Structure formats: C-alpha cells, structure tokens
Amino acid sequence: MTDQLTTDPAKPAQRMRAGSMSITLMPWIIASLLLLFLPFIFQANSAITIMNQMSITIIFALAYNMLLGQGGMLSFGHAVYMGVGGFACVHIMNMDDFFANIPLPLLPVFGGLFGMGLATIVGAFSTRKAGTVFAMISLGVGELIAACSVIIVAFFGGEEGISGDRTYGMPFFGVEFLQQIEVYYLIAFWVIISAALMYLFSRTPVGRMANAVRDNPERAEFLGYSARWVRFYSFVASGFFAGVAGALFAINYEILTEENLNLVTSGQILLVTFLGGVGFFFGPILGAIVFTLVQTVLSLQTELWAFYAGVLFVATVMFFPGGLAGVLMMHVPAMRLGKAKLLVVPYIKTLLPALIGILGLSALVEMVFHFRHAATGDHEMTLFWTTFDSHTLLPWIVAVVITVAAFWLMRMNMPGMVAAWHQANTVGKDRA
Amino acid sequence: MKDMNAATTPALHIDGLRKSFGKTEIIRGIDLSIGRGERHAVIGPNGAGKSTLFNLITARFPATAGKVELHGQDLAGLAPYQINRMGLSRSFQITNIFSNMTVFENVRCSLLWSQGYKYSFWNLVSRSRELTEGADAILEQINLLNRRNLPAGTLSYAEQRALEIGITIAGGADVIMLDEPTAGMSHSETDYIVELIRKVTENKTLVMVEHDMGVVFGLADYISVLVYGEIIATGRPEEVRGNPKVQEAYLGAALEAEH
Ligand SMILES: Nc1ncnc2c1ncn2[C@@H]1O[C@H](COP(=O)(O)OP(=O)(O)OP(=O)(O)O)[C@@H](O)[C@H]1O
Ligand SMILES: [Mg+2]
Predict the structure, then answer these.
(1) Is residue A432 very low, low, confident or very high in pLDDT (cuts 50, 70, 90)?
(2) SS3 A161
(3) Which among B98, B147, B149 is the nearest to A216, CB-wise?
C-alpha cells in the first residue's frame, strides 16, 4: 500500500505541452493582480513603505538565488552588485540634464547594466571554480568594494553616502513620482518583469545547464559545456537583476550608503533566500516577504527582532533545509492524492500548541530582557496587550506554565500528526 | 588533400602515451590506432589502467607524455568540453549523472550543445520540439520513459547505468567511449544494453572497456589487451583469443571466470 508515486508515462511529451501554458501563467496573473490591489487593502503610507521594501528584497533574493539555488554558487558579497547599481542610479539622478531626459521607470535598466558590468569584471575570475574558492572570492570582493566606499568618496559619498531626487526625471505620462503610491507601482512593475525574466532565464539552455553544473560540473564538461562559462553567464545575469534591485532602492529611498554594500547586507540576502528555500523558484519570494515582515513589523514590537530572526534561520537550516518553499511543496503529493484535508485537524492540534509555546517562550525572553535591561525602577512592562510588573513572581509562573503546557500538548498530539502525514501520503483507500 | 585523407585517418590515434601518479607510472607508453566505424574493446585485469587511458584521452587528466589525435587533430591542451564538441563522448565506470535533476532533464541537457543551443539565453528549452522529442526518443531507447520525471538519483543502480549510457549517446557524437557499460547489470539487462549499444553505434566509432567476455566477443571488431599499463596485444577477436601471451596474462583467467 505504499507504492511510490510515479507520473503517468503515457505520452509524456504531449502531456507536458498540453495545459502547461495555463498552469505556468496562473501564478503570474495572481501575483500581478495581488500587486495591483494590495495598496487598496493596505492604504497606510507605512504599509506602502513595507511593501516597497518587500518588492525590492524579492528581486534581490531572486537574483541571489540564480547563484545559490540555480547555479550552486555561495556568495558572501552579493550586496555590492545591488549597491553599485543603486549608487550609479543616484548619480544619474544628480546628472540634471541627462536625468531630465529619462523617464524614471527606465532608470532600473541603468542600475541593471551597472550591476551587470561589475559582475562581468568580477565573474571573469571568480566563476572559474565553485565551492570554497568562489565563496572566498565573493567575500574578498565584497569587503574590498565596501572598503572603497570610504576611499572613493566621489562615487560612494563616504560615510554619509549620496542622495538624489527622483522627481527630477522626465515626467512619465504626467507622473512625477512625488507620491509613495506612484513609486509603489513602479516597483511592482519591475518586480513582475524581473521575476518573469529570471524565471524564463532558468528555462533557457544556459539556465538549465546552470542546474547541471551545480549538480555535477565535471559531467557537464563532458557534454560540451564549460562549467566555468555556464557559471559566468548566471553570475552576470544575477548581477543585472541585483543592479535593478539597487536602482529601485535608489528610487524608493533616494539615498545610498555604505550599508548597501557591506557584508551585513550580503549576509542578510543569503539568509532571506535560504529561509524562503533555494530549491524552488518562488522560495526567495516567500523568504523576502517573511523576512521583511519580521524586520519591519516585528521590529516595531520588540527590540529583539534580530534575535528572533536568527532563531528562525537556525531553525530553518536545522529542521527545514528546503526552506518555506520546501515545507509547502512537501504537501504536493498529499494534495495530488486528494488527501490533504486529512492533515488539517492534526495540524491544528499540534501546531497551535506549538505556536502558543513559542509565544510563551518569547514572552519569557522578553521578560528576562526587560528584567535585566530596563531602567532601574522601571518594573512595568506590556506584553501581548497585558501590562504587569516584571519584578513579581506571578507573570513568570503564568508564562512558564503556559509554555510548558503548550509544548506538552504539542508533544502529545505529535504522533497523531505523524500518522496522519503517512496516511495522507499513502496511495490507496483509507483504513480506519 | 584533407578530404582524401579523411577516409584513412583513424578516428583516434594514440602515440607514446604515458601517465604517472606520483612516482608510479600507470600508463607506460601506449600506441594505438582506432579506425573509423570500428568497435574496439579494451580489456585487461583490474587496475591495468583502462579507465586511466580513457581519462587521458578525454582530458580528464593531463598526460605525462605522448599525444592523442581525434580525426587527425591533436588534442593537446584541450579541455573536456572542447573535445566533446569535436565529436567524442564518453561514459564513466562510476555512474556520473545529474542526480538532483529529473531523468528527462539529464537527457535533455545532454542534447543541448549538439543541437546548437550553446549558451543561449534567448531560447526556451520547453519550446523546442526537437529537444523534447529527442530526449524522449533516447529515454525510450534506454527503457526509462516510465521514470521520466523522477530525480535521477532515485533510480535503481541498473537504471542509472542505462541513463549514463543515454547521456553519453544523446549528443550523437561519432566517437563513443564506454567504460564498463554493463557492469552490475543482470543478464537480461546486459543483453538489452548490448543490443542498444550495437544499434546506436551503427556507423560510429566505439571504444569500450568491458569485463564481460560475452559482451566483448559479441560486439567488438577489434580487441586490445591492456596489462599493467601496456598494450600486449591488439587484433581481431579470434587472433587475440588465440594469442598465448594474452591467454597467460588475462584471458585464461577471465574466460574461466565466465564459467
Ligand atoms: N587519480 C589517481 N591518482 C592516483 N592513482 C590512480 C588514479 N587513478 C587511478 N589510479 C591508479 O591507477 C591504476 C589503474 O587504475 P584504473 O582505474 O585505470 O584501472 P582499470 O584498468 O580501469 O581497473 P578496473 O578494471 O578495476 O576498472 C590503479 O592502480 C589506480 O589505483
Ligand atoms: Mg576502470
């Protein structure tokens, strides 16, 4: 009763072509509509700001995953391509005569070209080998260019960075991009375009060979492809889209600083991409969305947001190496069998207590933090809409009891969930 | 002039080939010519240097001395991918496939260069009927159509061996080198693969390392016996079989093992 799932071998070629268009277009249409209508749901300026940041991170993470997920190249310095694209665009904004002839929505093309230019130079030597050599070169180049920001002040503006004004560009059908919402749609347009182009790239011969070289560079060489040049082309393409993200950053914030180039930013995009899942094209999109929410929404709630983000990453690496996308795609076989609904109740019974346990744990973390770091005499803290005295025993007891009880409940229900999982993934009739 | 020579230039010409790993010389001066359209088997005991010879010809390792010519062209200094583009394709003794990609993708990737796609980023692979149909035709030949959409790493050993051969022949190279293609296969699988090899190497040059003497004598036009880094005999199967030196060094034992 545990037959392996195999797809129907009959006429695979035809089957693949038939309907493939509608299946692959659907997510794009949904995403476009979502981007179109989100500002009507979240109208606050702060929400638009978050969504803009999210979109920029999406492009950057997708570009990063062209290396990590598609090409098997682990870069520790990818921020420089985004940064250089962004810096270049601010300079273009400041070239009054030139910029006055360029509609703002075209600016990302320039950002992309600058990112690509730098990637062409660096890629020429860094892509010769994958693995540790590539990673080390990326780290070195990242550090080097970040250091340049204080040396080449004319381009990078030293410690203050450089700023510009996006509204000096040629009006685009009367739009001057004075308002956030106008910028939102500009960025949304570029998210769709960039994501679509990056997706299509992965479907081209060189994109397919990037996967092959990632898996087995030696064998790829015996099939006529130079592993090095395959890596190089992915690297250059990735540099282009990183540059596009940089341009959008320049448009959105109108300022770039050393922070846009440094290793912290480079490390962050690695984490974002990994969190989302490197194995699927849409993984980095999920990663960017979740990470931006953690970074913006959670950081308003707690000073410790970076700590939670760190825990999230470690948990992902340890328990879900496929990232969020991997967790989602794990459910495809059960869905195909039409048995996904078997999972709903066991999931609620297990994951709800788990969530409460995690919140309880974070409450304890917050209380410890408050206890240790609040100003002397400040004993009052507010957590989950409750205000209490962190120097009395009762809140601690409540938090510990809730946490322990929740995790105990989770453990109790775990076997049920595991059993349901097996049942949902088994071909054949359910046995009661 | 060149055209007139073409018919007589051997597909592969090896001259004074040597290879040392550290102090030990593994390939100790090999001269060998393999004519066009010939099916040539290289046999010899374990550790004789058969795989190393393959690795030298295909530039997986650099040779210590000597030269290799493919269709009269010197291969010195060329990378494996350049040699492949000149029409030489090889398989590996230890299965060497793209295990995270689907079986279909494995074969499709093997078709890309030979179908002229190069480093194209303006074509979509799924749009090409030749690619899809070509890959499916190969899958049908190697009996893996029903595994088409599975990750190659999940196939059984024998299936992976078949895929290894499929990847090697997909590009339509005219010199094909197979390193123990039937190793680890059952009798019926071996029979099937031998027929397949015979079919796909029609009018092509085949160089094959093989331990199964049934396969060797069934398939090969010529046999070379490699012992301890040297070729001790080359010739038609019946000549090699009767050669007392070969009997002593290898064949006696190998044929006995068959029974
Ligand atoms: N990369 C290497 N470094 C060092 N020694 C090697 C290397 N490759 C092969 N050898 C040695 O060269 C010798 C010949 O190996 P090779 O694999 O060519 O033998 P073979 O004839 O293919 O044997 P088999 O029938 O077992 O496949 C062996 O002694 C092996 O240990
Ligand atoms: Mg061998």
Answers:
(1) very low
(2) coil
(3) B98
pLDDT given at position B4: 47
pTM: 0.90
Among B13, B15, B12, B11, smallest CA distance to B65 is for B15
A314 and A368 in one domain?
Answer: no
ipTM above 0.85, yes or no: yes
Q: Is B186 on the interface with A (CB under 8 A)?
A: no
Q: How far is B56 from chain A (nearest CA, A)?
A: 13
**Residue A5 scores a pLDDT above 80:** no
- Asked if the Cβ–Cβ distance from B124 to A203 is below 8 Å, we say yes
Cα separation, A9 vs B100, in Å, equals: 20
A131, HSE (Cβ side, Cα atoms, 13 Å)? 6
Domain holding A109, by residue range, is 27-321
- Residue A432 has what DSSP assignment? -
The tens digit of pLDDT for each residue in A332-350 reads 888 888 888 889 899 999 9
pLDDT at B252: 64
Partner-chain residue, chosen from B81, B109, B148, that has the shortest CB–CB distance to A208: B109
- Please check the confidence at residue A173 and state whether its pLDDT lies above 90: no
Same-domain pairing of A268 and A355: no
Using the beta-carbon criterion (under 8 Å), do B125 and A203 form an inter-chain contact?
Answer: yes
Indicate if A394 and A295 belong to the same structural domain: no
Instruction: For A48-102, give the secondary structure using H, E and C.
Output: HHHHHHHHHHHHHHHHHHHHHHHHCCCCCCCHHHHHHHHHHHHHHHHCHHHHCCC
CA distance A68 to A218: 18
